[in-house]
Amino acid sequence: MRKRWTAPGSRPVDKFNAGQKIYAGWIAGAVLVMMFTGLLMWFSGILRTICRASVIFVRGDLTLSILIVLAGHI
User: What is the pLDDT of residues 1-27, one digit of tens each?
Assistant: First the structure.
């Protein structure tokens, strides 16, 4: 059975704080979206039903948001 700490100050701190964990998760999700949209742009000739303009729009907005979050992180 694990010991439960009652006071907030007595809790152990992991290697990364909460902000770093959120940032890492967000970047991991952004990488997956960038990979998916990149594949859609690469194989747009095969997949005729996908609108290339929408993929470029999503990719551009995500790039801008990555730059803003990265600047805030630094």
Answer: 566 666 666 666 678 888 888 989 999
For 28-49, write each residue's pLDDT tens digit.
999 999 999 998 888 877 666 6
Q: Contact at 8 Å (CB) between 33 and 58? A: yes
> Residue 23: which region, alpha, beta or left (left: phi > 0; alpha: psi -120 to 50)?
alpha
Query: Which pairs with CB-CB distance under 8 Å and at least 24 residues apart come from 36-43?
Result: 37/62
Asked if 72 and 61 touch (Cβ cutoff 8 Å), the reply is no
Q: How far apart are the first and last CA of the chain?
A: 40
Sorted by where each begins, the domain ranges of the chain are 17-73
